[in-house]
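Please describe our next protein:
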Amino acid sequence: MTEDFKVEVFLRKSTGLVKEIGPFSSFILPWAVMAGTGITLYSITVILSYPEGSVPAALLIVAVPAILSAITFSLLGMIVPRTAGAYVWTSRFLDPFFGWFVGGWLEWVLCVFSIGLYGYVLESIIPAIFTIIGQAAGIPALVSFAASLESNTFVQGAVIVTVIVIFGLIALIEIKHYMKVLMVLWGLNVLGLIVSVVLFATNSPATVPAAWNNVWGAGSYQMITSLAAKYNLAGYIANTSGGRFNDTLNIVVYLFWALTGFEVSSYVGGEVRNPRSSFLYWFTAGVIATALWYALVTWLAYNAYGGFILQYSYVYNLFQAGKLAANETAVVSPYMLLPSMPLFSAA
């Protein structure tokens, strides 16, 4: 006579601690992480390198492996719901060495590079943000502050380091407080993008010139288009583009990292109340919603502005390289800001 025993491979014993990650927190986790990758910046700047590609289509293509990866991470989180899951999973399922190397040491190196990348993005975007807000809202003090910040590398570096240190300190606090901060940042991101969606959806290439001129000065829109034509944007496209299909595929490679965030579940696995529903349904839904949301916002931006985004990016590149005539540089310098989603929604 035999008797079957059910063996729990990874037994989870109750500790009496309250787990802070619920369904809604699981939903916003990937969204909040992706919001910090610079996706609203790179979804605009990439068009200069691949001028005939479709950024919205590229984002939808990138969404496929991102969603599949999210499902994989969710399943792993259901089986072994542990904080620092990447280390735990690779150690137990593969080999302790892989856990140390991939989930430990290599992850640390990648985080260091990520901080450097965030610093680079902040250096580029912070002065532009203050200028955009100041110009669009009619606050000269903000415009002046942005100009001084951009010209003073020491102050600029101090601001960037301060921001990084603040977020580093936030990461050290209890998870419940960290999630509250994350929810606030997520809410601000969503609010800003909702405003952008409304603005883009209610405008078209026919209405944008007047709106742009209203913010950046009379004739500024026409100046951009004329300079793009004068400096042979058509020839640049012919020499740079590999065609619509190839350019779109290149954008896929360029933007793939922007939809990372599907791995964040491994960091907080031990804090999730119900791993099955929170990971498999809510977390995966968060990745899907984020990918579709950014594809929609990007499509609306390019639909509203038509070819002007490429024209502006081209002229901005000429301006930065010092290839414009002195009189042209003087005219366009007040509105030669880093091409980004906020810049075009501000107009």
The chain is about 75% helix and 0% strand. The mean pLDDT is 80. The chain has one domain: 37-181+204-346.
